[in-house]
Design goal:
Elements: H1 8-16, H2 22-40, E1 43-46, H3 48-63, E2 75-79, H4 106-113, E3 117-122, E4 134-135, E5 139-140, H5 156-163, E6 170-174, H6 180-186, E7 189-192, E8 216-221, H7 224-234, E9 261-264, H8 275-290, E10 294-296, H9 305-320, H10 326-337, H11 346-354, H12 358-381, E11 384-388, E12 406-409, E13 412-415, H13 420-427, E14 433-440, E15 446-452, H14 458-472
Parallel strand pairs: 2-3, 9-10, 9-11
Antiparallel strand pairs: 1-3, 4-5, 6-8, 7-8, 7-14, 11-15, 12-13, 14-15
Length: 481
């Protein structure tokens, strides 16, 4: 495979063996970004001079025989939402265009300690709140497979940069599929960790210090092996609790695919997916069964999916509406007062959730605890749940107001955010999920699926995706890159 698409670990090995210098590799990726990123517009905050200087220091360190980390000299980019000293952190919000970080986010610090060299930061949607990645500061990011289509969001620039071969590794964040959705749309790997095993410190706007409920930060890569390495690097206690808190993730549950117990959830009436996506879940399940795995398309956790979805929307909008201006909050409160209590449509639930009181949150948190317990029981019998991430492959850019957007699924228009069901099913219960590529659609666009595991079974999800790549293939470069 060409240098631009080698894994981060393969590139690190070339540096250690002095086949390539860190400076040569940094210059190589910078040249690719400058030549090819125009149409993609993924790499929006560039730090090339500092990267070159760090690469020179990395080469000097290697020449002196000093001990080096697992990513020594490896160039990577990172989502704009992370703080990086000396660079802006805006979340795509024009009012924060002058917000320049004075220190690195904890994940940035850990990647640097492992030897990684940051080239740049990558694009996001406004407030990290869209399946598309565009804003008034940096413009719109295109999908390298078809720049007329979205790369996903909110880590859209992250996935696009990886798919186009602009970096070796990435890190994003996820509360509504923001790692998983772009990985699916761009044909790369993305891992949503179990909640709070990777510190969120520094993935925030000014004044926000506490860890957000259900939100996570985590890696994207072109191989499952790189996901595993990146998770090992960034996971662990937040600095405030490091004196007494330890993380010991269990090893993968199985060693070969034939030993796995896999449940299939191909589609759901709450958020129907296209026949092509549903069929892809079944096709992967059939392949696993042929290899000797135990596979079921009937097994489900013991809860009502509609109740799970409602609980997720309360948790999601409780977080997303935290910083709303007082006038917007007042308008939502007035709207909520007019709603029929029996109206459980997504729109009404989200309005109520945005203005919920602490008592409401406690009630839904208790419901969430019941969901976690049901999932724990389910994963006593099953190792992996295989399900969609989105209803379709990447769709064309649609920058109309949110309320006017729909998503066509096999010719039927769905509400734009209806597909957040598949992300929320996993997120509300703190579960880990690895999105992995399964090949392309009939239109030649990537299709990814979720491999979901029990809480703290992150290594099981990632290793399952690693083993599956040997059977169905892994990352494939988009044409022209």
């Amino acid at each position: 495979m060409h240098t631009q698409f080698l894994s981060a670990q393969a590139l690190a090995q070339k540096i250690r063996k002095k086949v390539l210098s860190a400076r040569e590799l940094v210059d190589f990726f910078i040249d690719r970004i400058e030549a090819l990123d125009g149409a993609v517009n993924a790499v929006v905050v560039r730090d090339f001079d500092r990267a070159r200087g760090e690469a020179d220091k990395a080469d000097e360190c290697l020449a002196s025989g000093s001990e080096v980390g697992p990513l020594h000299g490896v160039p990577m980019t990172i989502k704009e939402a992370y703080d990086m000293e000396g660079l802006p952190t805006t979340w795509g919000i024009p009012a924060f265009s002058g917000n320049v970080a004075t220190r690195d986010a904890e994940s940035v610090r850990r990647f640097r300690a492992a030897g990684a060299i940051f080239l740049a930061k990558t694009n996001v949607p406004l407030q990290l709140a869209d399946f598309q990645s565009y804003n008034d500061i940096y413009g719109a990011t295109g999908n390298p497979w078809d720049t007329e289509r979205t790369p996903g969001g909110s880590s859209g620039g992250s996935a696009a940069a990886l798919a186009a071969g602009f970096c070796a590794l990435e890190s994003g964040s996820d509360i509504g599929g923001s790692i998983r959705n772009p990985a699916h749309f761009c044909g790369v790997y993305g891992h949503k960790p179990t909640w709070n095993i990777v510190p969120q410190q520094g993935h925030s706007l000014p004044g926000s210090l506490a860890t957000s409920d259900i939100s996570v930060v985590g890696p994207l890569a072109r191989t499952a092996e790189d996901l595993a390495l990146a998770l090992d690097i960034v996971s662990g206690p937040e600095p405030l609790v490091a004196a007494g808190w330890r993380l010991e993730l269990p090893p993968p549950r199985q060693k070969k695919l034939s030993d796995y117990r896999v449940a299939l959830w191909q589609s759901d009436s709450i958020a129907p997916v296209s026949a092509e996506v549903s069929d892809r879940v079944q096709q992967v399940g059939d392949r696993l069964a042929a290899l000797g795995a135990t596979v079921s398309d009937k097994a489900r956790p013991a809860f009502d999916p509609a109740s799970s979805h409602e609980t997720y929307l309360y948790m999601l909008n409780g977080v997303m509406a935290e910083g709303l201006p007082k006038d917007e909050k007042a308008a939502l409160e007035a709207h909520a007062a007019t709603l029929d209590p029996a109206d459980l449509s997504d729109e009404s639930v989200m309005v109520r959730a945005a203005v919920q009181g602490h008592g409401d949150w406690l009630r839904y948190n208790n419901r969430r605890q019941a969901l976690r317990m049901a999932w724990a029981d389910f994963f006593e019998d099953w190792d992996i749940l295989l399900c969609p991430q989105m209803a379709t492959a990447a769709f064309k850019h649609d920058h109309r107001p949110m309320t006017e957007r729909t998503l066509a699924v096999d010719g039927v228009d769905q509400l734009y955010f209806q597909q957040i069901f598949w992300a929320g099913l996993v997120t509300v219960a703190y579960l880990p999920s690895t999105v992995f590529p399964t090949g392309v659609s009939s239109e030649g666009l990537p299709l990814g699926l979720q491999a979901v595991g029990a809480e703290y079974a992150d290594r099981t999800c990632i290793d399952f995706a690693r083993l599956l790549a040997d059977e169905i293939g892994g990352f494939v470069p988009p044409p022209g890159y």
